[in-house]
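Trying the structure run again after the queue cleared.
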Amino acid sequence: MKTVLVAGTWSDSTPGDRKLVWWEPGSPFAAEAARNGVELLAPDDPFRWTTELEGIVGKNDAWQAAGNALARYCREKARGEMVNGIFHSHAGQVLAYAALSRRFHHVITVATPGRADMVDIYRRAARSISAWTHIYTGRGDRWQWLGALFDGYLGIRREMPAPARNVFGPCRNHISLLDPTLWTARGWWDLVKDTA
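Done. Tokens:
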């Protein structure tokens, strides 16, 4: 089963950038995924969205538009087959909106801020996700904390609500959870490879 990689807020790049970002084919993350048996969905045409910051003053329009685009992308590239996915940061919100109209097999959200304004969307999306693992880290991840501001919660939510299975990853910060050697050491690739 193929896997889609989706960037979080401000994680996009433009063609010709000096350094590939984690979700792009040929990046160290994508290369290690391939070495561990993860087959990427449409590696020559990866999914891209605006990666705009949302969730301020109740507006989630960019996440919803990106979710609709992701659902279309997966329908076109997977032609009726379910896909797995790895979603960093606010890409987890994009996944939630995509799953309102598209089924996914096993998804992994990585450091996605659990937001009060998304709880109903998470609940509805979970019906279209066969298995959901959320990988998070501790207080060193200030970006996850900032990503949950203005959502209506009092306090910090690093875990996702059930039915997501929450897994703690001992890392320093928001992006270190995408260290491909950590994924290999922890066996996280197994969550999205050769799953039927």
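The radius of gyration is 15 Å. Worth checking whether this holds up in the mutant runs.
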